[in-house]
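Complex 250.
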Amino acid sequence: MVPIPTPGLPYVGLLTDHEWSLVILLFGPPGSGKGTQGRMIIEWLQPQIPSISTGEILRAEIAAGTPLGLETKSIIASGGLVGDEIINRIVRHRISQPDCARGFMLDGYPRTLGQAEFLDEELAAKGMSEPVVVHLDVPAEVLISRIICRRQCRDCGAMFNILSRRPHIRGRCDECSGILIVRYDDREEVIRERLRAYEAQTQPVLAHYYNGFYCHIPGDRSPVYIFEAITHFLEPFAIAHAGGGKVSGS
Ligand code: AMP
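Predicted structure with adenosine monophosphate bound:
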């Protein structure tokens, strides 16, 4: 694997003539703000890298009615995991596209140890750098209280939050005056189940990366603070990425 810099340590001299690639794995439970942080990371990086969400790819396949979509629809609807073989094939195809040559960010993958090992092999075969893991960690109770305060317009789908984004008229949508409801999957017992499943799936995968370039970020703070912590960790990698893998300066 290509040698890469250690966060907090001077990176100069660690890289030579290797092509640098930046592979970011973003982990975070539902409601952790992972989507927002992911978008901010991509905007911050220069040159930019594509953000790849396996969940989004699958949803697009379902919407397009492809054989893959038909095959995976019922698994996704039941909240289960799509088999490693299918998901690994999707990822292998996507990361072989030209826009991934200098790196990419993965959201929602890997979700099993088998997927993590597959990714290791793919990166090694491509001569790409070891992944950099950002783990947004938010206590379950904080997530639950955030999510149960969400309200959605029954008619237009607009989202509100009775703590942080209140509608102007209680129970009514600001956009279309529709009735605000609690989404089925935002109910406390459903959230607890989703969080339990997330923990059970994710812990062994995270453990696979503990000895690598791994950063645990407490996610129960403001988005600005979280982004600051993420960029602090990513900075040496981003500098190497921007320099195209060449050492510059002394
Ligand atoms: P997400 O939007 O990441 O929560 O993914 C939505 C659904 O797609 C999941 O509940 C799984 O059914 C499926 N899925 C997405 N990524 C993976 C993965 N890496 N492994 C297995 N199933 C996945």
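Residues 170 and 208 are 47 Å apart (CA to CA).
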